[in-house]
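Workshop exercise sheet. Pairs work together: one partner reads the sequence aloud, the other fills in the structure field after running the prediction. Swap roles for the next sheet.
Pair: D.N. / O.F.
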Amino acid sequence: MLRLPSFALVLVLVVLAAGCGSKSSQPTSTADWADGVCSAFTTWKSSITSSADSLKGGDLSQDSLQSTADDMKSATETLESDLKDLGKPDTQAGQQAKDSLDQLSSDLKTDTDSIQTAVDGVSDLSGVASAIATVSTTLATMQSQVISTFNSLKQLDAQGELQSAFEQSNACQQLSSSS
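Structure field:
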């Protein structure tokens, strides 16, 4: 029975390090924007974790891998949409923050496409092992991208408005405390 190595751990680390997004319209303040980012990441984390957990039951068939890859892709598409809906925060570095999230969305989409390609190539047990290795490696890459983006968001503006908004956000605090 094959297991997805460190899959859940990587997902938890991705989200804990990253912070967070939501399905709201243009935020009216930097605090609303930060809450939206944290809410979107919380939703994404929940979806990805649920998908990964479905593989822990030992069913590593091509169908179960395909279903998991489809779920991850759907969760990432939702995240991308949620982050785009947020627009930019009301700070001097607002456009840079939006551009950073747009780039993260694009990178995560590319990563889920890599997962999908690996899963599509599964035809036997060795293919399952290869797909699992690709998923694990890709999730580590996603973790790095999210951490990097989140850290840059907090440091974009000289006044520290974004960092303060993330620190004061209830959604980001709830995300941190849920681990």
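Discussion prompt: The mean pLDDT is 77. What would you look at next?
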